């Protein structure tokens, strides 16, 4: 039985096991071993690099798992995975590192889905503080930050603030991925939802049509490529056994 759980509470251990534990247990066992006495500086540096690489693997695995669970709508199960990513990011990079932001965003999104808006605001505020204090924070992070802040304020009923964040979301996503990207269309979609809730139907339907155009173009390109592949003649390979070979063909 594995003893490397993140919490002693039985219910939390069960959630931890279903969320992330099985994906990182072997790495945790190595990371939590007592430090060995190593006689040379070369061996000590090699050991430090191995531990650092394991830490980074845990962070990547936990963050990927959290995003996967959020995509499935399993918000409660995503929380332990996101917490692991935050914990190991703090250990590896420090409290002001931009690497922490994606993990905080996962936690914020999960809490919004669970209607724990106070906790969501806490995590997203931490992510926002790190992002605005880093002048090199990339648009690939900024768009996702503003999207989650927009979802938070929309859930709280503060529609004007939600629209402001969705506008920033669209700006950064367009800068990073292009105006017709599927990722950019997500900001348009959430903005349209806010106008819909405000009963501003003309504006909402106009933005929904923009989202539809982006998806139609994307899906049409996929369908066209599939039809082109299907229309191309497939090469037929005939395998002839040694006993069936026609005399002269093997000469």
From TrEMBL:
The lineage of its organism: Eukaryota, Metazoa, Spiralia, Lophotrochozoa, Mollusca. TPR repeats lie at residues 143-176. It comes from Acanthosepion pharaonis (Pharaoh cuttlefish). Gene3D superfamilies: Tetratricopeptide repeat domain. InterPro entries: TPR-like_helical_dom_sf, TPR_rpt, Zinc_finger_MYND_domain. Keywords: TPR repeat. This is Zinc finger MYND domain-containing protein 12. It comes from the Eukaryota.
